[in-house]
Amino acid sequence: MASAGDTVTTEVIIAGGGPVGLTLAHELGSRDVDCLVVEPRTQPDLASPRCKQINPKSMEAYRRLGIAGAIRDHARLPFGWSDSAVFCTSLTGEGLVRFDGIFALSDVQRDDLAEPAQWCAQNRLEEALRATLPQRASVSAWWGFAVTGVKQDVDGVTVTAVDGEGNERRVRGKHLVGADGSRSVVRRELGIRLSGRSHEIRNLQTIFSAPGLGEAHPHGRAVQYWVVNSEVNGLMGRLDTEDTWWAIIIGAAADPDTASVRSAVHTMIGAEHPIRITGVDPWQARMLVADRYREGRCFLAGDAAHQNPPWGGFGANTGIGDAVDLGWKLAAHLRGWAGPGLLGSYETERRPMAERAIAEAERNMRVLTGELAHPALTRSDAEGAEARSKTADLIRQTKAAEMYTVGFVLGARYDDSPLITGDDRPEPVAPPLEHRPSGKPGNRLPHLWLDRERSLYDVLGPGFTLLEVAAPGAPDWEDAAASVGVPLARYRLNRPDLRERYGAAYLLVRPDRHIAWRGDTTPPDVAVILDRARGVVPAR
Questions:
Q1: CB-CB contact of 361 with 311 (8 Å)
Q2: Which of 9, 28, 213, 368 lies 20 to 30 A from 151 at CA?
Q3: 368 to each of 5, 44, 226, 312, 378, how far by Cα in Å?
Q4: CB-CB contact of 422 with 442 (8 Å)
Q5: SS (H, E, C) 124-189
Q6: Tens of pLDDT along 75-121?
Q7: What angle do CA 67, 439, 306 make, to 5 degrees?
Q8: Rounded distance, CA 415 to CA 515, Å?
């Protein structure tokens, strides 16, 4: 980062230092791109962390960036602490259904994952991302400064930022990314609208301290306890192995006082357990997507671009996916090897992903604990037993998809991307709630452990990688890549037995571990395939 008079200069300005902005900073920093993070908070928000689940695909991105271990270290629930969710009449009441093996949270190694998910509050994720940021020599940050103005021209973008005392700074960059949340100043300054709707039900998240509560209930370890009763509905869980808990009250009053929040939490617990409320955060589910993700040299990412209901845990993870996609594309553009359509493909690829995630979360939202409640659930007679049995069946029918999300998460693919050279070969059909890895272009590269500690993902290059599944390939790929400055690595797997798994002898893998092309021979038009993958074909 340099200075030109009173204005600092950089390559990429990132407005917002939440999970999305910080992930983008790590992506760009890992590629030696100069960037500046502008974030109004001096420290992560401890009052009410909304995101709590980092899914396997996000964790695989953090593994590639070398920081997955740091994130697990910062999480206050240890890796593998629990992979269960419990539905119950209250925390100390009757159990209804227990889902085990949810969200791919288990610490038992799986063939299809390089990194399992991690239960981690958003503030702890941000702490880890901030703590590891000094590893990126090209990344700087203005903590305590909020973006107040954006002006762009044909050569760049100038951003004005102000701190809490009114001190003003300016920075000039080649690009700006607005990762500044649902009330994005960048989105407003660019004149980009959100389309969609908000759910009519008001909800409230509260954070509270409850000494001994973890040992006071009969349901064992779980990351979520869904409370189904006729008085208060919602879900709750632990934020750490000490005494800090969160609870979401579904259908909360518009402006509740502390006493009413405490009463609602006690009803969810099912007992007058000692608690101390430390944070209250009212919210409504929103199903909104920006009409466009780009305006000239400026881009939107995360909640600035889309707002997801929390059911299924897709919101922050979708934003992390935005950062991964935009990061390698901005780096390619700034280093001169991107085609004219590469930056345009960011919206082409990521906007449908946001729409897909919102649609799935909205399906999960159709049945919440209020729809499951029955006045006889807490009765100790035959009618109560029958009500609990019927409710348990309904829970299994309606909530399993929300618990077993790995098929949805890993099945995300860029079918209609202009960067992908597709084919008509069949791909595996996955049973409901499961994932079947596929080598079809557009998909995430099927994972493979090379040995107990080393993932196939660990040996891929930071740019494109030609994966030789069954036999050595021709040198045409290096020649074509070198002629246009594209970083290309080659990895010889030499596993003919995996030819069927990957669907071809050769795969061209993108920097984000999605497949750009596959084939059984070196094609005569290697340069054309590589050009398409780097955006020479204009984005549709």
A1: yes
A2: 28
A3: 56, 30, 9, 12, 18
A4: yes
A5: HHHHHHHHCHHHCCCEEEEECEEEEEEEECCCCEEEEEEECCCCEEEEEECEEEECCCCCCHHHHH
A6: 999 999 999 999 999 999 999 999 999 999 999 999 999 999 999 99
A7: 55
A8: 11
Helix (H), strand (E) at residue 86 = strand 84-88
CA distance 393 to 382: 17
Q: In whole angstroms, give the CA distance from residue 243 to residue 313.
A: 23
pLDDT given at position 432: 78
pTM comes to: 0.96
Q: How far is CA 423 from CA 109, 136, 301, 356, in A?
A: 32, 38, 30, 23
CB 293 within 8 A of CB 350: yes
Q: Tell me, what's the pLDDT at 4?
A: 57
CA distance 331 to 138: 12
Strands 12-15 and 175-178 turn out to be parallel
Strand order in the sheet with 175-178: 139-143, 35-39, 12-15, 175-178, 298-300, 294-295
**How far out from the chain centre does Cα 167 lie?**
34
Rounded to whole angstroms, how far apart are CA atoms 264 and 234? 10
Give me the torsion for CA of 273, 278, 282, 285, rounded to 10°.
-80
Of 218, 199, 247, 260, residue with least CA distance to 86:
218
Burial pattern 450-459, b for ≥16 Cβ within 10 A else e, equals eeeeebbbee
CA 248 centroid distance within chain: 20
CA 155 to chain centroid, in Å, comes to 32
Torsion of Cα atoms, 365 then 366 then 370 then 373, to 10°: -130
- The pLDDT value given to residue 1: 67
Per-residue 3-state assignment (H helix, E strand, C coil) for 181-235: CCCCHHHHHHCCCEEEEEEEEEEEEEEEECCCHHHCCCCCCCCEEEECCCCCEEE
Distances (CA, A) of 137 to 132, 134, 168, 335: 11, 6, 25, 17
Q: What are phi and psi of 288, to 5 degrees?
A: -130, 140
Tokens of 181: 């949340």
d(CA 249, CA 253): 9
At 466 the three-state DSSP class reads: strand
Q: Which residues, 6+ apart, have CB-to-CB distance to 366 below 8 Å?
A: 398
Q: CA-to-CA distance for 505 and 425, rounded, in angstroms?
A: 14
Whole-angstrom Cα distance, residue 333 to residue 342?
A: 8
Q: What is the pLDDT of residue 274?
A: 97
Q: Quote the CA–CA distance of 530 and 65 in Å, as a whole number.
A: 24
Give the model's pLDDT for residue 3: 61
